[in-house]
Structures are given as structure tokens and as C-alpha cells.
Input
Amino acid sequence: MCLHDHTPEAPSAAAVPRRGILAGAAALAGISVASLAAQLGGAPAAEAADAATSSSRGDRPASPSPLMIEGGTIVDPKTGHAVEDGVLVLEGGRVTAVGSRTETRRAVAALAGRARTVDASGRWVLPGLIDVHVHANALSDAAAILQGGATSVRSGSTSFYQDVALAALPEWAAGASPRMSPAGLFISPELGESLLADPDLGPLAALHGGVNEPADLAYLARVNLKRGAKVIKTRANPRAGLAEQDPRELVYNYGQLSAVVKAAGKAGVLCHAYSAEGIDGAVRAGVRSIEHGVFVTEQTIARMASRGTYFTPTLDAITGMSGSSDPILAARGREYTPIIKEAVRAAHEAGVTVVAGTDSFGSEVTPIGTEVRLLAEAGLSPLDALRAATVNAAALLGWGADAGRLVRGSYADAVVVNADPLSNPSALEQISAVVAQGVLVRNNL
Ligand SMILES: [Zn+2]
Output
């Protein structure tokens, strides 16, 4: 059975408006506007709750007070240049000055002592890191991601649009969530309880065997986009992390994935893929990035390089299976680890852009610095591994002008680390401060 009858049109104007959907997602994500405001020391709780329920959104909250990070070595991941004893000034949610003491003297004078100052002497200052594959379902998950140093993320899908709700937070509550490119619901045959996320999904509940027809796949992608997804997540293969599934079987073939890619349009698609056939079908269908990609062939790597398909190997998730208490998963981890490392090395050498994604789920967050170290261990130079979590990841998200570097006008997102990231592959695991949207959300200095 298929939904050809109603799929040609866009989803009907829903009985539940977008605001209602988002309120539901926010509730599931554990976000209460009132408690959030109290937690962040913002507007009085009652006032915030009033504003949330009134039809007008009210005035934007004041941006955080200026912040100055001085004395550290400021590293530009794009050029690999480092400025010793540098100064970084953040104000109004943006970088307003960055460079040597001389270069920033005027901007510092203009602050006239208004800025909170952090001394980063003996440390390295970097742009906020980017994790291109996370599953954040709650406010606490978002906080854990920030603590790990990722100030921007791409969602790899959630069950109830929680990522769409989290993505709306930075505009209202600086520092409450990383900047997020939300994927909404996973485009997968079995929607399970996610069918309850959205009244527009009712028709898909009637399908026997799940969502498989190209028209139904396109419909599900369009519902996601209508609810605020900025990227579409789908799959070519089953999951590796579930012992009862075989990630070398095929879930969606080239034709099905092509329907998803077409419906996603400019939003682009990230595709979970393991088998050689699955990865190649996804690449030919035009997905923007391959997630996991263990059994990618040399031929597909060449295709990825020529098409500009990004590669998110999620090394921590795959190698981490080796430590599983489940013998099937542990064996899978041991088998896959050398294969995925070799795939990363070969892809990087062939000119494929490798990006850093942890596949962190919920509050079990792997710090993005761990994935960067694993990329270096797989053969990337420390600078290229750093780029995988900064400039290259920003380009994948379409945020290249704002994130991934510290230049005048870029986002007020930064991390301070205790070792030189240009020579030490585990430097990004040694975080001493994190600034997200101008707010110092972690400070061990
Ligand atoms: Zn994932």
C-alpha cells in the first residue's frame, strides 16, 4: 500500500499548528520556559511564561555582556596560523575583535572595562567546535554537548522534533543549547512511536511494511521540512549498534534514496550507511554526507571526492562497540575498527572532506575532542583533524561564514584548551573553557 492519493500535495494545513507541535516537542525535551528563564537568571519566570503563551513573541532578550579572552594563543583552523598572547572580544553574539594586543588595542579600549575578562595565558583559543552527528532529546543533552566543547551541531534525528525545539533556543536563551541544524524525524521504514509526533503522519500509520514507496518517503521528508527540519536524515542500511540487526542488509536502495534527496531539496540529506552497496547508492542518489560508511569501496570514495560528498565516520561510535558487553557487538567493533580507520585514511587521501561526528545519543555525550583525536589516529594531521570539527564541519552545515573560525563578525562561540591543537592530537579533549553564543558555559580557568 502506498500514499499516492495524497502525496502529491504538500502536507495539509495541520489540525495542530506548528506552534503546538513545537510546544509538544519542547515539553518532551524537558524545556519549561519558566524554569529555563529562572535557571539562566533571565526575565522573571512568570513574565517569561506569559511571553511564551501570548500571541506576540515580545522583545528579544538582551544579549550577554561583553566577554574578553586574553593571553592565549589564538588558532585559525583554516590557515593553521596561531597568534600568541592574543585577544578575543565577543559582544552582541559576535566576534568584534580578534588578534594580537596591538591589533585589538582600540576595540579593548572601547570596551572601557565593561567586559568580563578570562585569562587564557598558557592555553590555546579556538572557535567553538562542531559535532555533525548528535541525537539530542532533552535540555540536559544539549547542556552535555556544550560541556564537551561542541557549540554547533547537526542533529541526526530525534523521535519527536525535540531538535527543532532545541534549535530555537539560542535566539531566546543564549547558552542553553548549541546552535543546531535539526533533522526532525528519521526517514526510516518503521516510525514507531514517532507516528505520534505529528498528526500529519497519521496516513503513514496505515502502511503495511512501513515507509518504503518513493512517494511516501518524499511525503515524510516534506512533513519534516514543514515542521522546521533544516536537514533530512535517512538510511541505506540497518543499525550496527543493535545485535539483532545486520548493517550489511539493504533498507533503502538508490531509487528510494533518490526520492528522499529530491524531496529534501536544498536542505540536503545525511545518510546512515554501512554496506558497499548502500553507501554507493546513497552517494549516487546525491546525499550530502555519508554517516558511518564502514564498508565504503575505493570506487565509491572516488565518486565521493568528485561529487563533494562529505564523510562522517563516527569513529568513536564504531570503535567503541569493541568494549560492548554484548559479544556480537564487541566482535563487530573489533572487526569494523581497522576497516573504518583505513576508510578514513583512504577517503582523506583521495580528497573527500572528512568531518567529525560522535553519534552521541541523549546525555551519553562523547566530547567532540575525542572524535578529533580518533581522526588523527586514523591518519589525519592534527590540523586536518581540527578542521574536521571546525571549518569543514561549518561548510557542511552551510555556516561557513559564521562558524568554524574566529574572525571579526563570526559567532561568539569559542573553546579554550590546555594543549597545542596543531601538534597534540588529544588537545581538544583538554577543555578548560567553553563560550556559546557569548555566554561562558564552562570555565575551569
Ligand atoms: Zn546517529
